[in-house]
Amino acid sequence: MTGAPSGFEYSIVGGSVEIRHHGRRAVVLRGAAAEKFLADVERRDPQQVMARATGNYKRGNERRAGR
How many whole angstroms separate alpha carbon 12 and alpha carbon 29? Predict the structure, then answer.
């Protein structure tokens, strides 16, 4: 799949989830957001879930917006 997200990793620190992209911290999720993320990452493609959690994913409208 071309354009698939990659380079994401996450770690659980205390009650928070820290998501990194190519080694740099992208976002820290806490509380309900962290719980939802952990549930989603078990059921879906982890790279896609992490990309969506950080806002770093293609939405399909980039070509239209560029015109």
Answer: 10
- Phi, psi of 17, deg, nearest 5: -115, 125
Q: Give the CA radius of gyration of the chain.
A: 13
Domain boundaries, the chain: 30-56
For 13, 26, 28, 57, 65, the CA distances from 38, given in Å and listed in that order, are 13, 16, 13, 19, 33
> Smallest Cα–Cα separation from 18: which of 52, 55, 54, 48?
54
Q: What pTM did the predictor assign?
A: 0.77
Beta strands in the chain (DSSP E): 8-13, 16-21, 24-29
- 18-67: pLDDT as tens digits: 999 999 999 999 999 999 999 999 999 999 999 999 986 665 555 555 55
